[in-house]
């Protein structure tokens, strides 16, 4: 790797290593966004200009537009359910994501889109990674002919705002839904999950408990859901405490599902002692494991690198007369593959096929991953061909697995070739795919290629996540393209995405080392102003 004359290269060495790791790890779940820095108050008022009242609670209105007035109506395209909705939503997202927030409304007016509830819901879903843009679109949409309030639209907006931790606005939306009779358990579960992902466990539990005050009765299945959600948000200790409290109060008796989700949670933490403890408590309660419970045991052993123990559980299943499911085979193949025990993984794939199960994508993807982990990419591509022959894929996840390992083995040209071929299989790249490619190019002094991929993604109406911004900005700093780095840093803030502390430190140090003191001060000032300015609904 060449040495840059600019000292930023020295400062960003560790950042580039992190970008490389990001490219390799992108297939992991990226559904947790960091907290957002709120907008300056004047801009917040512009975004929320369409809000009618502090709680958004007004009577449902008819159209507020009289189109019979002077001036020619802009061209409009009609949206119908199905593929046309997706095409129109992508078109709207391209417009929204390319405009500063104060100009979003006028740009949408010029687009002349004819709204439908389906379109509004899909645009908000596509803007999930840009909460403030989602809010700006929603406030514009509220004022348009053809708009109607739906639970799906509210839920998609709550999801987008929850990702950037704008919970005050989220609760304002809850009040608006209450006024319109649109509240359900799903509403509260969305908010609970966002609180849990934000590590706000107390607020998550309080939100769950509020359901009763809104006339929504909680049942054992809801408590199982809460335990599962907390466990999957790396809060399994709190989930276990809720389980113990539930047992102590005697309001609900834990069932098989309760024990299963707890075993899964402790399995994710690789705490085999607690997995076995919960399993034994289940047996002591007189509950026998089913295929799902056995699967959680197998998964826990595989995640902890103890595949031999997982195989013992598999054999115990067979002896007990519990037939392994395709998911159980998939977990074993994944676990053995991760330990580079390819021959054994393939043995269980053959057992899977011999059991009479139809070929399915997750199990085939596990085999693809097992081949890739030992760099047998030609065998992986043969598995992909077999998937095509069986008419079950491949899907975007298949390609993400291959790309992940190609990048890991530094086969960058091959990775880009595979990326370009995805469309030929009808597999459009997803956010994770673009994140890997941007990370790969940014960490290997190919920022121009990263920007090319970035543009391709934006043209398809897909919005970048925090990880993509981080990789690109670090790459731009390393190549001494500091003005461009600042542009993308500002774009992060405009979309309501909080930059990681290390990213801002890297950018600031690069600017200072490069003698761009005033620019560093400007970025620090903007960040400080955003931190101190509350966002009002």
Describe the structure.
- By secondary structure, the chain is mainly alpha-helical.
- It contains 29 helices and no strands.
- The longest helix has 16 residues, at 517-532.
- The chain is globular.
- The chain starts with 7 loop residues before the first helix and ends in a 5-residue tail after the last helix.
Number of E-state strands: 0
Strand content: under 5%
Provide the succession of SSEs: HHHHHHHHHHHHHHHHHHHHHHHHHHHHH
Q: Structural class per helix/strand content?
A: mainly alpha
In which range does the helix fraction lie?
55-70%
Shape: globular
Number of helices: 29
Identify low-pLDDT runs: 1-83
**Major beta-sheet overview:** none
State the separation between the terminal residues, measured CA to CA: 50 Å
Overall pLDDT, averaged?
A: 84
Report Rg.
Answer: 25 Å
Note the topology.
Elements (H helix, E strand, L loop, with lengths): L7 H4 L1 H13 L15 H7 L35 H15 L6 H8 L5 H10 L4 H12 L8 H13 L3 H13 L5 H13 L3 H10 L9 H13 L3 H14 L6 H13 L3 H13 L6 H13 L3 H14 L5 H13 L3 H13 L6 H13 L3 H13 L6 H13 L3 H10 L9 H12 L4 H13 L6 H13 L3 H13 L6 H13 L3 H16 L5
Helix pairs in contact: 2-22, 2-24, 2-26, 4-6, 6-8, 7-8, 8-9, 8-10, 10-11, 12-13, 12-14, 13-14, 14-15, 14-16, 16-17, 16-18, 17-18, 18-19, 18-20, 19-20, 20-21, 20-22, 22-23, 22-24, 23-24, 24-25, 24-26, 26-27, 26-28, 28-29
């Amino acid at each position: 790797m060449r040495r840059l004359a600019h000292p930023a290269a020295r400062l960003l060495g560790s950042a580039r290593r992190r970008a490389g790791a990001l490219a390799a790890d992108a297939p992991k779940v990226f559904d947790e966004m960091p907290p957002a820095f709120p907008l300056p108050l004047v801009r917040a008022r512009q975004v929320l200009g369409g809000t009618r009242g502090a709680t958004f609670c007004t009577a449902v209105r008819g159209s507020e537009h009289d189109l019979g007035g002077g001036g020619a109506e802009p061209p409009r395209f009609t949206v119908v359910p199905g593929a046309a909705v997706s095409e129109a939503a992508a078109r709207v997202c391209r417009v929204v994501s390319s405009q500063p927030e104060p100009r979003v409304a006028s740009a949408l007016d010029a687009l002349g889109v004819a709204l439908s509830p389906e379109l509004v819901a899909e645009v908000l879903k596509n803007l999930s990674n840009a909460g403030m843009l989602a809010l700006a679109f929603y406030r514009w949409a509220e004022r348009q002919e053809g708009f109607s309030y739906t639970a799906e639209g509210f839920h998609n907006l709550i999801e987008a705002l929850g990702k950037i931790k704008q919970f005050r606005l989220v609760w304002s939306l809850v009040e608006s839904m209450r006024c319109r009779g649109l509240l359900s358990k799903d509403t509260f579960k969305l908010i609970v999950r966002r609180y849990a992902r934000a590590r706000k466990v107390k607020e998550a539990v309080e939100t769950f408990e509020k359901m009763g005050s809104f006339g929504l009765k909680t049942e054992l299945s809801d408590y199982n859901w809460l335990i599962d959600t907390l466990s999957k948000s790396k809060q399994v200790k709190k989930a276990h405490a809720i389980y113990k409290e539930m047992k102590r109060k005697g309001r609900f008796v834990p069932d098989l599902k309760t024990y299963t989700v707890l075993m899964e949670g402790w399995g994710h933490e690789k705490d085999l002692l607690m997995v076995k403890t919960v399993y034994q408590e289940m047996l002591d309660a007189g509950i026998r494991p089913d295929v799902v419970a056995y699967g959680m045991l197998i998964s826990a052993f595989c995640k902890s690198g103890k595949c031999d123990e997982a195989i013992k559980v598999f054999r115990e299943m067979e002896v007990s007369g519990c037939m392994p499911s395709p998911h159980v085979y998939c977990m074993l193949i994944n676990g053995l593959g991760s330990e580079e025990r390819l021959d054994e993984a393939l043995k269980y794939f053959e057992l899977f096929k011999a059991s009479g199960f139809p070929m399915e994508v997750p199990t085939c993807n596990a085999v693809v991953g097992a081949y890739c982990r030992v760099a047998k990419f030609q065998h992986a591509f043969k598995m992909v061909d077999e998937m095509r022959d069986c008419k079950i894929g491949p899907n975007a996840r298949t390609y993400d697995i291959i790309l992940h390992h190609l990048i890991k083995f530094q086969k960058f040209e091959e990775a880009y070739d595979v990326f370009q071929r995805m469309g030929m299989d009808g597999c459009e790249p997803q956010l994770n795919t673009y994140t890997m490619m941007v990370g790969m190019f940014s960490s290997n002094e190919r920022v121009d290629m990263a920007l090319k991929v970035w543009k391709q993604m934006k043209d398809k109406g897909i919005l970048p996540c925090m990880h993509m911004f981080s990789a690109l900005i670090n790459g731009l700093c390393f190549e001494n393209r500091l003005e461009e780095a600042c542009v993308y840093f500002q774009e992060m803030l405009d979309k309501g995405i909080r930059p990681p502390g290390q990213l801002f430190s890297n950018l600031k140090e690069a600017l200072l080392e490069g003698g761009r003191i005033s620019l560093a001060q400007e970025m620090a000032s903007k960040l400080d102003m955003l931190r101190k300015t509350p966002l009002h609904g």
